[in-house]
Design brief:
- The protein is of the alpha+beta class.
- The protein is 29% helix and 24% strand.
- The strands form four sheets. Strands 1-6-7-5 form a four-stranded antiparallel sheet. It has a four-stranded antiparallel sheet with strand order 2-3-4-8, with helices on one face. The chain has a two-stranded parallel sheet with strand order 9-10.
- The longest helix has 20 residues.
- The protein is elongated.
Length: 258
Amino acid sequence: MPELPEVNTFQRYFDASALQQRIARVDVHDDKIIRNMDGASFADRLQDRSFTGSYRRGKYLFAHLDNGHHVLLHFGMTGDIKYYEDPLDRPRHERFAFVFENGFQLGFDDPRKFARILYLEDLQAYIDSLPLGEDALRISEADFLALLQTKKGQLKAFLLNQQHLAGVGNLYADEICYQTRIHPAARIEELSLDEQKLIFASMQQILNYAVEKRAYYKDYPEDWLWQWRVEGFVPADGRGVVKKATIAGRTTYFLDGL
């Protein structure tokens, strides 16, 4: 599933292609991923509207409409967007498309139909209903440390819980643990203050780097765990061996000996 850096890349693409354009119509080919109304109603709500901005909260992208409402674009495992003019460029698994007055379209592609599209009249009420924690790149160190003081359990479970912190998924959680040299199964109530601060700093550095690189994995540093998530792999510095286990209900890679 796309994590914070990937969704940030989607947001940049959306803003560059869709903002301040009148929506002439919405072509809905398959409304399964539109979760709170049928396709015809969704199309009717969007016709003649325009997107004025966007807001990302963790893995959730909210598109602002000129009437004060929002459209949630949650990409699931295989969701993607494509801006195009020629019908021959239409994505193979396009489920719907915003057709703009200029003749271009922004198609939402989703082969596996795990995405979640919602028309929202009250954005804050929806966020409160999830509930969704603060964005992992917006939370302050002080608020992060205060949040840790109220929690117990495994570090990786804390990082993955979107109610605590929005945006960190399985791969980036493993990377944070690897770069801090703290075992993903470590108990957060037993972490020292220095370790807690190190986790925050590492999370910020990793996510900001990934955002800067537009989540293009091939540009990630060679010494990141990301590049060799293979059980039995020995890093060049010989500090240990990569192990695999199920931690917090997820497949987890870590360096043996942490």
